Amino acid sequence: MVGEGARRRVAITGGCGFLGLRLANTILEDEHGGVEEAVLLDLAPPTRGLPRNCRFLAVSVADAAGVDAAFTAAGRLDAVFHVASYGMSGRELRGGGERIRAVNVGGTANVLAACLRHAVPRLVYVSTVNVIFVGRPIHGGDESAPYPPPSAYKDHYSASKAEAERMVLAANGTPLGGGGSGSGSVDGAAAPATTAAASGSSEGAARNSSHAAAAGNGGAGGCSGSGGGGGGGGGGGDGLLYTCAVRSTGIWGAGETRHQPRVIRMVRAGLFAATFGDSAGLSDW
């Protein structure tokens, strides 16, 4: 809970998609969160108009200069939710990996660079279970599970999300105010390589991120602390960027337009088949 008068602003990349809009509405409806405005960064505005207390800025995360300009236009930010991605399914997934990598890896590098340059103290990255799950059973898995080798990923999307997640977790605790080159390339990424990320293990970086969240300095949706941005202070006043990654599964619900319409079309065409495997196969994420 934030104190009286501590009003906050957040930005959401991919903010006009299904998850981005739901996230914006949920954050703004939380009377204890103190968020007064959500800035939605996306290629196009939502088709049904902007929700109350939301502002739209047109930008591709793959455009380094555009991302930096959008952060400037947004004003002081207390947190950024990096939701934007490309290539998850359908034709996007079947296409070449160049654009997937440009958006998912290069775009994440651009967002990280902008957070550091504009002194945004908190970054929540929407990742995917695909960064760990590559078709083999995982028993009792947690954040300490090592990343699979790059050759184990079945598609460009999963590989790119894993690379971007490592980048985000490696940036946890980075001093604000630098920003890197913002080139949109991996070589120009702002995130420093930590021992945990470089060794192929998610344990150390995830532990650091969890510690930051527990201390009130970030974490998934954690809008606590004094905030920074606009070239000013940092998260909790310590001048550091705190990051975490949320590994989601398939996202669907009322108003979702990626999966459900496709499934309905397949059912109507008689092409839909459901495969049921071993009943012991469970998913708890």
TrEMBL record:
<protein>
    <submittedName>
        <fullName>Short-chain dehydrogenase/reductase family 42E member 1</fullName>
    </submittedName>
</protein>
<dbReference type="Pfam" id="PF01073">
    <property type="entry name" value="3Beta_HSD"/>
</dbReference>
<dbReference type="InterPro" id="IPR050425">
    <property type="entry name" value="NAD(P)_dehydrat-like"/>
</dbReference>
<dbReference type="InterPro" id="IPR002225">
    <property type="entry name" value="3Beta_OHSteriod_DH/Estase"/>
</dbReference>
<feature type="compositionally biased region" description="Low complexity">
    <location>
        <begin position="200"/>
        <end position="215"/>
    </location>
</feature>
<feature type="domain" description="3-beta hydroxysteroid dehydrogenase/isomerase">
    <location>
        <begin position="11"/>
        <end position="180"/>
    </location>
</feature>
<feature type="region of interest" description="Disordered">
    <location>
        <begin position="200"/>
        <end position="221"/>
    </location>
</feature>
<dbReference type="GO" id="GO:0016616">
    <property type="term" value="F:oxidoreductase activity, acting on the CH-OH group of donors, NAD or NADP as acceptor"/>
</dbReference>
<dbReference type="GO" id="GO:0006694">
    <property type="term" value="P:steroid biosynthetic process"/>
</dbReference>
<feature type="domain" description="3-beta hydroxysteroid dehydrogenase/isomerase">
    <location>
        <begin position="239"/>
        <end position="285"/>
    </location>
</feature>
<keyword id="KW-0560">Oxidoreductase</keyword>
<dbReference type="InterPro" id="IPR036291">
    <property type="entry name" value="NAD(P)-bd_dom_sf"/>
</dbReference>
